[in-house]
Design brief:
Number of helices: 21
Shape: globular
Low-confidence stretches: none
Strand order of the largest sheet: 1-2
Mean pLDDT: 94
Helix content: over 70%
Radius of gyration: 21 Å
Order of helices and strands: HHHHHHHHHHHHHHEEHHHHHHH
Length: 393
């Protein structure tokens, strides 16, 4: 039997706690009664936009709907508490100033662990890394590179807090990242911080506000000048990609198209995807965002036509965090098309390339939940994945 309630079950419990019938919740959430019923019984996955609409009607957060944060190993909990303490004491680093080469190596390792979705290992080094980089920056005064390194370290911290479902910690980390970026004039670091700030609105289901953050960040970055360079294209393109996600989840096809068109223009100036301030950008990653937007907007034929070539030959230079997300999006699209075997195969790909992300990603869990409900215990591979996520014992 399952060891954790499904998102649909959480909706039912919260609805009943508030003395609300299905008819009223469906009306307040903009859903049909039959669709809400299927959500509550686990026959349909709870998508981020649906979670946002239902959570607003129930006056809770989307994370509450998904049951985040999910249970993790004891070490993970201890490390998250240590990270939380470090983030709270952001102006009081305990660490001494490290050798420059040592700090650079640690920052590179953190970025690699983040891209490889090795979150537990990343948690083990983050508190020391944040302390060391902050100590270095404070000693260096207004050095833009030093404070940019602090912002990058916080960017890695945001990624792990966000992915593990600790929204309050993610919010605090974004504030610290913005603080670091603003210690000196560093437009790139400020833009990266805004990208994560918009991500907190995305997690909360506040897509319109997130779009406002992105529009402001784009305007600020463009006004800073700097000419036309690959780095500048990567920063602006990344901001537009965040806009693609927010707009598509807001069901604004016009804004989605505008941000995607701009992103493609910037991607055309870059031969191969690059990573700058923990932001991945290029033609390969832009294609993945376009695929996800088609799914959010219900354009399944377009999603299907794109997914075939991408699944057959994923861009080799993209890291596991991006390829894993590709598989999860394809699994969701396959499920919507009632291709259950295709959805299961895509989930297997996600667990193969990014196991720690697949185990906690809300949509990976939701697709797996639906497949599990439909097939129960008849498929060993589904049972294996369900055990890895803690959905069953």
């Amino acid at each position: 039997m399952e060891s954790a309630p499904t998102a649909g079950e959480n909706i039912a419990v919260l609805r009943k706690t508030r003395g609300m019938g299905q008819t009223k919740l469906a009306r307040l959430s903009g859903l049909s009664l039959s669709y809400l019923s299927k959500l509550e019984t686990g026959q349909r996955p709870v998508t981020p936009p649906v979670a946002a609409a239902v959570s607003q009607a129930l006056h809770v957060t989307p994370a509450r709907i998904f049951g985040q944060p999910f249970m993790g190993p004891v070490e993970q909990s201890d490390l998250l508490n240590e990270l939380r303490t470090t983030v709270r004491r952001h102006t009081l680093p305990r660490e001494d100033v490290p050798p420059t080469a040592e700090l650079s190596q640690a920052l590179f390792k953190a970025a690699t662990l983040r891209a490889d979705t090795r979150y537990l290992e990343l948690l083990r080094i983050l508190p020391k890394l944040l302390g060391q980089s902050t100590a270095m920056a404070i000693t260096a005064g207004g050095d833009a590179t030093a404070w940019g390194q602090v912002a990058d370290a916080y960017g890695c911290a945001y990624a792990v807090a966000h992915r593990l479902g600790h929204s309050d910690l993610a919010d605090m980390i974004v504030a610290r990242q913005a603080w670091a970026a603003q210690q000196t004039w560093n437009p790139d670091a400020e833009a990266a911080a805004a990208w994560n700030e918009a991500g907190t609105y995305q997690s909360a289901g506040q897509y319109e506000d997130g779009l406002a953050i992105i529009e402001r960040a784009i305007s600020r970055y463009e006004s800073a000048g700097g000419g036309s360079t690959p780095a500048r294209s990567a920063i602006l393109g990344s901001l537009h990609l965040r806009g693609v996600v927010l707009a598509s989840r807001h069901k604004d096809s016009g804004a989605t198209s505008d941000h995607l068109t701009r992103a493609k223009t910037f991607a055309g100036a870059i031969e191969q995807d690059v990573v700058l301030h923990n932001l991945t950008f290029g033609q390969g990653n832009t294609a993945l965002y376009e695929l996800a937007a088609h799914i959010e907007l219900g354009q399944l034929d377009d999603a299907t036509s794109m997914s075939g070539p991408l699944m057959a030959a994923p861009p080799s230079w993209l890291k596991p965090n991006r390829i894993g997300r590709l598989y999860i999006d394809v699994a969701r699209a396959k499920l919507m098309k009632k291709d259950h075997q295709g959805a299961e195969d895509a989930l297997k790909g996600a667990f193969r390339v990014a196991p720690q992300m697949a185990a906690v990603h809300p949509m990976a869990r939701e697709v797996l939940r639906v497949l599990f409900v439909l097939h129960q215990r008849t498929k060993p591979d589904l049972m294996s994945m369900a055990k890895k996520t803690g959905l069953t014992q």
